[in-house]
Amino acid sequence: MSGQILPKKHHPIAPQAAPGTLADEILKALMFRVGKNANVATGHDWLNASIKVVRDRIVTSWIDSTERTYKAGGKRVYYLSLEFLIGRLMRDAFSNMGMLEEVREALASLGVDLDVIAELEPDAALGNGGLGRLAACFMESMATVDVPAHGYGIRYVHGLFRQEIHDGNQVELPETWLEHGNPWDFDRRERAYEIGFGGTVEAQTNELGQPSGNIWRPQERVLATAYDTPVVGWRGKRVNTLRLWSAIPIDPILLDAFNAGDHIGALKESNKAEALTRVLYPADSHLAGQELRLRQEYFFSAASLQDIINRHLGEYEDLTSLPDKAAIHLNDTHPAVAVAELMRLLLDSHGFQFEAAWDITRRTFGYTNHTLLPEALESWPIHVFEQLLPRHMQIVYAINAELLREARDKGLDDGQIRNISLIGEDGERRVRMGNLAFAGSHSINGVSALHTDLMKQTVFSDFHQLYPNRINNKTNGITQRRWLFQCNPALTSLIRETIGDRFMDDIEALQELDRFADDASFREKFAAVKRANKERLTRVVSERMGLNLDPSALFDIQVKRIHEYKRQLLNIIEAVALYDQIRSHPERDWVPRVKFFGGKAAPSYFNAKKIIKLANDVGRVINNDPAVRGLLKVVFIPNYNVSLAEVMMPAADLSEQISTAGMEASGTGNMKFALNGALTIGTLDGANVEMKEHVGDDNIVIFGLTAAEVKDARTNGYNPREAIENSPELSQALSAILSGVFSHDEPERYRGLIGGLYEHDTFMCAADFDSYADAQRRVDDLWRDSADWNRRAVHNTARMGWFSSDRTIRQYAGEIWDVPA
After folding, report:
1. Annotated active-site residue in 344, 470, 672, 749
2. Average pLDDT of the residues in 10-34
3. CATH 1.10.3660.10 for domain 546-783
């Protein structure tokens, strides 16, 4: 698709457009800003020209938004996130500016199909999953509800890897999203900040010989340079800034070394700088990977803080007023080192005493926790942290001393004090980044009601006793502009025809659709939209994988990061059990079903990669077995990303949200599926709990242990072998996998993965299997009554308005950031 899309035989003369029209602007941009005429323009050329024409209008709103904020003298939000999974921006920006159809018509008059060139826009691989996509939704919603904000992150050259499946195995390849440049970003080389690593700390004294502070003298230095992307709110009301940092060496080449013949050594500094922003989440299973991860986190946090302070001091006399003018928000623990960095800047560069600096820091920062898994809260070996950031290590110790004194004064016991310490003493001594983020923030929020309650009971229970008013809930949301208006235009049009346009500006008005769930005519139209979306997905699967699917089958979809707690394995095992039942009982009225999987496993996560292999092995056998008669297919679609999600979410009949209860913080895929008319099968975990309250018990299928029951089972002794032996279907399915039915070439392939379930079953797959299988048969029963299924699907769409990120951001703005929205 990157070649010429307008062959000369179709256009012997370059297309013309009336002067002053949008088509004329696109032609001029093509010639003067891309350097091509229409006869030789490629698809990427037309894409860039179209973006630049709309971008010019965005810039006008962008500058106006910045000037309004400056004149108002109000508070700004600074959102620090290691991930921003923004996906393709063209439709998002064009639609929010109200120009999508206008550009479509202009391009059509020139013989260019907007949908064709839109597919050429790279899917920016700047995130891994829910955390990064949430950050992207939040940025769009902040602009929509008129919150002045900057997002700060890293401009990864490759970002997360591109996933290919070779012989059923995940293979990681570089994602070259910048191969054709990025027409959305603006190079801000004047916004460059020096970032240091390593070195020594020198204590300073005044003329009386008294201590007067410290000076950090880094051994290594790089420059962080800014690239800005405008983030357009709905109807172009506000345009905010996503500022991503790129690393460049201060000394790109050591000429003496190069001229002496040491060509590799001469480029050492350049290579080290480039490695900082090369990929997202380098494998941290080894020391070098851990060090690079910490370097990345400090690099973007330090650059962002210098930028924030520089902007603040350009408007105000000193940093005393920083908490009143800046709300800095930490999206998970990745930017937690910013707490120590702000303290360093206040203490060493701006002369504050410790107490005053600590007060400013805590009133400025807020922290969102996204996980209850202790291992995901991030911690760094003391020797790694101190070697890279020696001054910050001193500051962490100083903060810790103050924190532990306060805890002791408030009556916490030794065990509680060990738990809240910033230094973990269990085994290797480590700096606990979650504890640092908590201690350094005035607000700590969870992302669903259940998650927030569990935070208070588990990972931060002792902090909650010390600071009982800091933890609060902000249930996640999604932007309906991306996840309904853009990815499902046919459904959006149907809703507009049915209830009018008010929901497009006030998504909670979507509930007016609820009364049409009993309207047979509307349900038929609703079902026709779903069918068209399923046909689109079948075409994608056919083109990418050569697999033909029946769009009249139930489309059962689980797409998300591959992790054992998300329990793709439970889903696959149930597919094996269903496969066995279909073959054993051909006389039954089986519902045709396609089980879709998609997602990436961390490169060093052995079991997650083995689950991908198992999904592909099971699919290979089932999909080619004539005894199944096409009633069941299992499909793992490679390289799941935002663009693929935009095809899969509208096509789903059934949304799999089956994590072990108490382990999923919120989920946002669950919201996207339901908004597009899918029923959810899930545990009472994360935001599923609140979704159940909103969509109604009859319109969601719940199974399995609750979070409290999972805790009790683990506390009182859970015997997975007994659970397996008491479930004939589960026992048969596991035996089939273990015996090599799906791995004839290597019968022992899944001995570790499946055999482990008999011994520990950490994620309760065996405990929940029978309940899950029964729930799936309830789904079959519901599916057989198509009118009733569609009624329930309409209720899901109509009742999801509350789960908008606009609502979430308004809550952040009013209850954490103290800014109007």
Report:
1. 672
2. 82
3. no
